[in-house]
Write a structure and sequence with these properties.
Helices cover 32% and strands 22% of the residues. By secondary structure, it is α/β, with parallel strands linked by helices. β17 and β18 form a beta hairpin.
């Protein structure tokens, strides 16, 4: 049987795309194997958000070529879309296809002879008009990720994504509800909505569908029978309408965890970034969502070293982060992307300053995460069990007296705390009540209800 191997770089949208593409190959008679194994086709789904993403994409392409020089090498994703010439210049690449028109990728590969000249099928992504339906992935994870939207019209001055993903296109509401209903019937307790710019869901629909927006979608999904958790991967602060906030706050199915990109806590820098909100708007959204309860977790993306960012600007970001009390931060160093306005700004920040500010925020993130998670010690939370825990060498050693038992499981609470606890039996995909005991090195240790009763 023919074999296909996949490697994915970048965001959850890319991961979702890869799983759908894998399903296409499975339907076409292929067996999907690990990327390091021998395969007939290697597909690399690339990322281009930063220079690091570009470099890692090239590294993985070259690795695939070395694994089997007789295999067909297929490159897709954002880096392939924005820089096809750079991908085509790598000896050994057979097909470059970008981020659209991938529904017939198996047929394209099957008809592709192994040849000296690669085939370039990267189309004009800005001409894309409709959401491209790909097969529902196998959902190998405990939580099911459902892509509801593609593309972005915002064009922030630093961002290459609109050029990689094209204009916004939303998936029809009925198709999303059907997939989520099927997932709930199959036993998935949690669904995570993903998209390039999820908050604008429905805005591209015609006027007679104007009532279809993210709030309408969420309202439909929280009513799905059997679904116990609904999480949205990321929503910009300006996309939280009062209607959406009300549904998220009042529904017990909506998780008390919101990922809201900040990027900067300084209004001058936000304006230069072309972000459509200010620091006050951001804090106002946080205050509204906090009505869901004190346990509500807020995570965010923060960029350091944007052109013109002074120490005062950076300190305004630190101040806002402390005021919100995020439970975690994703910290990025600004990376100039060719074709974006910010790449041509004259006041670029040196790499040493970027690194110093990045490390300061990473250190702050560690402290904020510990503070937030430790506030739940001795409380009960339901944990959605994901997998058997495999400890990293040298970590979690101090808590071996707490982690008693032969099998350790890990999973997530609704407010996004990762928990480790000991238990026998097959618990994957189960919602288990766990008493949280101690915070250590990125995990909360705990004991499930039955174990606590034995003490």
């Amino acid at each position: 049987m023919k074999k296909a191997a996949f490697h994915t770089l970048g965001c959850k949208v890319n991961q979702q795309d890869s799983e759908s593409l894998a399903r296409l190959f499975i339907n076409g008679g292929y067996t999907v194997v690990d990327f390091g194994d021998a395969a007939d086709v290697y597909l690399i789904n690339t990322c281009t958000v930063t220079h690091l993403g570009d470099r890692k994409s090239r590294q993985m392409i070259r690795k695939a070529i070395k694994l089997n020089r007789e295999a067909k090498i297929v490159v897709t994703g954002c880096y392939a879309q924005t820089s096809p010439g750079e991908v085509l210049a790598i000896p050994g690449v057979d097909l470059v296809i970008g981020t659209k028109d991938r529904h017939n990728i198996v047929q394209l590969v099957e008809n592709l002879p192994k040849q000296l000249e690669p085939v370039n099928l990267v189309g004009d992504i800005m001409a894309a008009e409709e959401f491209e339906e790909l097969p529902v992935p196998a959902h190998s994870r405990t939580r099911a990720f459902v892509k509801v939207q593609e593309g972005c019209n915002q064009f922030c001055t630093y961002c290459i994504v609109p050029f990689a993903r094209g204009p916004m296109r939303s998936r029809p509401l009925g198709k999303v509800v059907t997939e989520v209903t099927q997932l709930a019937a199959e036993g998935f307790r949690e669904v995570v909505l993903t998209g390039t710019h999820t908050g604008v869901y429905g805005k591209d629909f015609s006027s007679r569908e104007c009532s279809v927006n993210l709030a309408a979608l969420v309202k439909s999904l929280v009513a799905v029978k059997g679904l116990e958790r609904l999480r949205i991967s990321s929503v910009d602060p300006n996309d939280f309408t009062d209607e959406l906030v009300e549904i998220l706050v009042e529904s017990p199915v909506a998780c008390p965890h919101f990922h809201i990109p900040l990027q900067s806590g300084d209004d001058h820098i936000l304006k230069r970034m072309r972000r459509p909100y200010g620091s006050g708007d951001f804090l106002n959204v946080i205050a509204k969502l906090r009505q869901k309860g004190q346990e509500t977790a807020f995570t965010t993306d923060v960029m350091v070293g944007f052109p013109g960012e002074t120490e005062e600007h950076f300190q305004n970001t630190v101040k806002l982060i402390r005021e919100v009390g995020f439970s975690d931060l994703h910290v990025f160093k600004y990376s100039p992307r060719k074709g974006t306005p910010a790449a041509n700004f004259s006041d670029q920040i040196d790499s040493e300053t970027k690194e110093r500010r990045s490390q300061r925020l990473i250190s702050l993130a560690t402290k904020l995460q510990e503070k937030y998670c430790s506030s739940f010690i001795n409380e009960w939370r339901k944990v959605l069990v994901e997998k058997i825990w495999q400890p990293e060498k040298g970590k979690m050693q101090a808590n071996q007296e707490i982690l008693t038992g032969q099998v350790f499981w890990e999973g997530l609470t609704d407010n996004y705390i990762r928990v480790i606890f000991a238990a026998e039996g097959q618990l994957a995909k189960e919602l288990i009540p766990v008493r949280l005991l101690d915070w250590q090195e990125g995990y909360m240790t705990g004991k499930m209800l039955e174990e606590v009763d034995k003490l």
